Amino acid sequence: MDNQRDNQSISPTETAIKARVDAILGRMSLEEKIGQLTQLGAMAFMPGPKPEDVIRKGGAGSVLWLTDRKQFNVLQKVAVEESPSGIPLLFALDVIHGYHTIFPVPLAMASSWDPSVAERAQTVAAREARAAGIHWSFGPMLDIARDARWGRIVEGAGEDPFLGAAMAVAQVRGFQGDVLGAPDRVLASAKHFAGYGASDGGRDYDPVYLSESQLRNTYFPPFEAAVKAGVGTIMSAYMDLNDVPAGANRFLLRDVLRGEWGFNGFVVSDAFAVGNLVIQGFARDGRDAALRALSAGLDMDMASNTYGQHLAGLVEDGSLDVAEIDAAVRPILSIKVRMGLFEQPYTDESMLEQVIALPAHRQEARLAAQRSMVLLRNEGGLLPLSKQLSNVAVIGPLADSMEATEGSWMIFDHKPAAVTVLAGIRARLSAAAVSYAPGPEIKRDIPSMFDDFVPPADRKPDQSPADAEAAYQTALDTARHADLVIMVLGESANMAGEFASRASLDLPGRQEELLKAVVALGKPVVLVLLNGRPLSINWAAENVPAILEAWEPGTEGGHAVADILFGDVNPGGKLPVSFPRKGAHSPIYYARNITHQPETSPMYRSRYWDGLPTPLYPFGFGLSYTTFSFTNLKVSAAQVKVGAAITVSIDVTNTGAIAGDEVAQLYIHQKSGSDSRPMRELKGFERLTLQPGETKTVTFKLGPAELRHWSTNAGKWLQDAAAFDLWVGADCLASLQTEFEVVS
Ligand code: BGC
Fold it and tell me: How far apart are the CA of 467 and the centre of ligand 1, in A?
């Protein structure tokens, strides 16, 4: 009976794919099957035999980190024409926010609160990467991150599961298109499953302890959304989750991912993670690591060759059944079939130059950067600046840094080519109107592993203290002779990302000292921040009249900064993360549970005695050159039955004199119930463009999906009959409030 139903629900295409996969599998040897589960690291430093020799024997299903484009077709030919079953390879790379045309980093794209921006960005990234020969991107990164010390916060959508899920879906669509198989799209990989953003102390790779309710209510939603959107692969995380490494975690990979969510793609480990199960003190040896990872549901071993070395022996001695190997190989073959790789394994090498030259790609990058930037302060309407300015100083170590403008993950032979902030401002005002001084250089106290990838000949020697002092004085002098100063400060590209956690969130080096000295000159000062994480800019927030959070804005970043500073574009981005006042306040996030001494009462003093515990800038915050009002908040019913939905509507009006964008944000709080719930949770948002005086009505639907939660007490999803507060406004502190009640 069940079989009959299953057969009826499978479409003819699915039946044909399954039959084809079965046929391929039927003619493969065990060694070749294990080969499909092996992803080969093709970096020069990797030990072991030459990639072509492994591929010729059918010993690899995928290759990553290959940067020499000429090699893609060469290796593919070996796989297709010389290996026993001729199965094409999947070429994989980290295409995180652009391949040739670089888009704002993902944290910035989330600041747009406009999922269509992220979708279009990843569509362009996919088109360029595919033209270069890449089939598979290791993105999107979907880790919720509430600790700004964690360097990888830059790669995700920030602290909120609802916003994170929206950005996840958009990026999966952008990378993959509607269905796998389009010649100008790539396979996506939702990573790092799961909980990586909650590492102890924000230290990269450190263990994570999260309750089931934190996982399900906060950390899983972007992944579940990606699975629903059809993501083809999932990458498991490195760290221990509640004492079980994520890459050998049956609860994550079998129970939740496949059992509950019905994921039918394949799971790849993070780099070297299967072998590292031994280093982590989990597996006894490589054999044990291979057995436990595969049994837990991890299909492809990235770069450690632990599967290659041990799976055959495990089958031979009866520890594993061939059926378990087949079950891991099937989804890999199925994806290769769906992607059309058997029909078209090769890349047309003439494509890339045409594709990267498409003007639309740069236009998309500029638009994405414009929409991602967040105006944090604008006292006295200093911004927008006049285009008639004739004597502007641009100061700071990042002002002319292409690397900092492009941001993290630009390591695979990518040559930085961004329009810097200096170049963007010069293009707007004329070179003669703009003087420039970088001030002292900034650098990490401990270098990054990625710094080792820079060829020795390209490495710059450290600035001497005397040169740094001279650079400081020159910068001050340059500022002294200008009518207005634009300071471009923040973090260099290697200060956020992997291997880039830090304890302090202050501006590194002498940047704040220089900022204070420049402000003391009494000139108007604009601060443009280039950074991949929230920074504690407490002094600037009080003393610098205009602050623009530009993040790491990508190839067109400098143009986009100028577009905003000179008023051609009205900023409308909003923070996807809270900005802590100090690194030591991390983790910090708005969706906290209320305590018996709420922060809104005089008992806020129950927290730190050495400063306010509230964020410097709250989640969802961002200013505009115009003003908005929120009025007429209505719910369709004061009471709603469990399982039913209500509609919420709000009028948003542009009350200023110029057109601008506002993001209407809806938050709820369940006031009592089976478990304590966060004081506010985002459950709807919409970015709007409004002309002066224009009003738009926004409607949101709140149904069981928004009103339920995973209950620790009940050990399952629950929708309580309970009273709710509801707010709609411009950030997580929105004050326009109403109520409704869910009744049984
Ligand atoms: C990172 C992943 C990345 C992989 C392959 C790892 O170190 O954690 O995010 O996709 O390397 O480059």
Answer: 37
Q: Which residue's CA lies nearest to atom 6 of ligand 1?
A: 271
Residue 32 near ligand 1, beta carbon < 6 Å: no
Ligand 1 pocket: which of 239, 270, 414, 499 to mutate (most atoms within 8 A of CB): 270
Residue 609: exposure state from Cβ atoms within 10 A (0-12, 13-18, ≥19): exposed
Counting beta carbons within 10 angstroms of the beta carbon of residue 53, is it exposed (0 to 12), middle (13 to 18) or buried (19 or more)? exposed
CATH number of the structural domain spanning residue 233: 3.20.20.300
For residue 192, whether the previous peptide bond is cis, meaning omega lies within 30 degrees of 0, is yes
Mean per-residue pLDDT for 503-521? 98
Six token digits for residue 207: 């263990």
- The pLDDT assigned to 5 comes to 43
Helices and strands counted in the chain (H then E): 24, 26
- Asked if residue 99 lies in contact with residue 122, where contact means CB atoms within 8 angstroms, the answer is no
Residues 284 and 399 in one domain: no
How far is residue 308's CA from residue 59's CA, in Å, rounded to a whole number?
A: 8
Sheet of 301-302: strand order equals 136-137, 90-93, 62-64, 38-41, 301-302
- What pLDDT was estimated at residue 540? 98
Band of pLDDT at residue 605, cut at 50, 70 and 90 = confident
Whether 486 maps to a domain, the answer reads yes
Angle made by CA atoms 369, 570, 661, in degrees to the nearest 5: 95
Judge if the beta carbon of residue 114 lies within 6 A of ligand 1.
no
Which residues belong to the active site?
270
- Asked, for residue 483, whether it belongs to a domain, the answer is yes
Task: Find the domain containing 639 and state its range.
Answer: 628-743
Q: Whose CA is nearest to atom 5 of ligand 1?
A: 271
Residue found by looking up tokens 């051609």 in the block: 568
Q: What is the DSSP string of 476-545?
A: HHHHHT-SEEEEEEE--GGGSSTT---S--SPPTTHHHHHHHHHTTTS-EEEEEE-SS----HHHHHH-S
- Is the per-residue pLDDT at 411 higher than 80? no
- Distance between CA 455 and CA 433 in Å, rounded? 36
Ligand 1 mean position to 444 CA, how many Å? 21
Residue 664 pairs in a beta bridge with 686
| Tens-digit pLDDT profile for residues 634-645 | 999 999 999 999
Residues 636 and 559 in one domain: no
Determine the Cα–Cα distance for residues 392 and 114; give it in Å rounded to an integer: 33
Considering its fold, how many domains does the chain have in total? 3
* Tokens 């002779």 -> residue: 481
Last residue of a domain, one of 338, 368, 390: 338
Task: Decide whether any atom of ligand 1 lies within 6 Å of the 155 Cβ.
Answer: no
For residue 409 and ligand 1, the question of a CB distance below 6 A is answered with: no
Mark whether 37 and 77 lie in a shared domain.
yes
Q: Closest Cα to atom 8, ligand 1: which residue? A: 270
Percent of the chain with pLDDT over 70: 98
Is the CA virtual torsion 494, 500, 506, 508 positive or negative? Answer: negative
For residue 318, how far is its CA from the centre of ligand 1 (angstroms)?
Answer: 33
| CA–CA dist 715, 211 (Å, integer) | 11
* Residue 9, in any domain of the structure: yes
CA 270 – ligand 1 centroid, Å: 6
- Single out the residue of 127, 137, 185 nearest to residue 356, CA to CA: 127
Distance 661 CA to ligand 1 centre (A): 36
Atom of ligand 1 nearest to the CA of 189: 10
Report the nearest-CA residue for atom 2 of ligand 1. 270
pLDDT (tens digit per residue) in 676-708: 999 999 999 999 999 999 999 999 999 999 999
Q: How far apart are CA 318 and CA 72, in angstroms?
A: 37
Q: Which atom, in ligand 1's list, is nearest to the CA of 235? A: 10
pLDDT digits (tens, 9 = 90+) for 240-252: 999 999 999 999 9
